[in-house]
Amino acid sequence: MSNNTARKISPATRLLPLIGIAVVAVFGAVFLKDYLSFDALRENREALLTFRDSYYGLTVAIFITAYVVIVGFSLPGATIATLTGGFLFATFPGALFNVIGATLGATLIFLAARWGLGARLGAKLEETDGKIKAIKDGITENQWSMLFLIRLVPAVPFFVANLLPAFLDVPLRRFVISTFFGIIPGAVVYTSVGAGLGEVFARGESPNLGIIFEPHILLPILGLAALAALPILIKTLRGGKSL
Predict the structure, then answer these.
(1) Average pLDDT in the 148-163 region?
(2) How many angstroms separate the CA atoms of 1 and 52, rounded?
(3) Where are the domains of the chain?
(4) What's the whole-model pTM score?
(5) Which residue has the higher pLDDT, 64 or 242?
(6) How far is CA 122 from CA 33, 106, 144, 154, 176, in A?
(7) Is residue 74 within 8 Å of 25, Cβ to Cβ?
(8) What pLDDT, on the 0 to 100 scale, is given for residue 197?
(9) Which of 11, 87, 183, 214 is the most buried (most CB within 10 A)?
(10) What average pLDDT does this structure show over 108-116?
(11) What is the pLDDT, as a whole number, of residue 88?
(12) How buried is residue 151: exposed, middle or buried, by Cβ count under 10 Å (0-12/13-18/19+)?
């Protein structure tokens, strides 16, 4: 698309992808929450396993596509989808399928946000104060480190981590790579929980979704976050420019 054509696109037209995502997200929150739940997985587990055993490749394709739709349209059930990946495909390759689906879905939101709002909202963020402004400045000056940091720190919502880079002129390739590798630790943890759902179902219990905040899980992830933040710290101490 040429620059002249791009300039002819109205602001309202640019917002259509984000509006579509918002509409589907509201629809999903109202009508799909009972279908994308732990109870639904429990009730349909035998049928899912039977289908997987009969059509493994098709199951993988359907699963990744469903994950992309869930993340890309901000539907409820991303955690359940991750557990399902572990339940159906074990920790590996289940974690790989989960990361692929989540990365593709996050990329959809990133592209929709960048095309719809992009620099305009980025300029408004520049005028704000507080945590959002700090994250914005950090990403601008230390893109690789900050992109990995917001993926690794559990306190940063996944949706926010998808939107902020879109408003800060982060290259698509850099966003995809940092998302793919940055979400691996958390994905492996929840996928491993999903891989043990057979025993959980047998006991009539619910999985421990707070496991990621237990010290033996959280501390290594925070260690990775500290490693990602190290270049920022070194730059601050040196008072130099980012590489």
Answers:
(1) 83
(2) 42
(3) 3-238
(4) 0.80
(5) 64
(6) 33, 19, 18, 24, 20
(7) yes
(8) 86
(9) 87
(10) 85
(11) 95
(12) buried
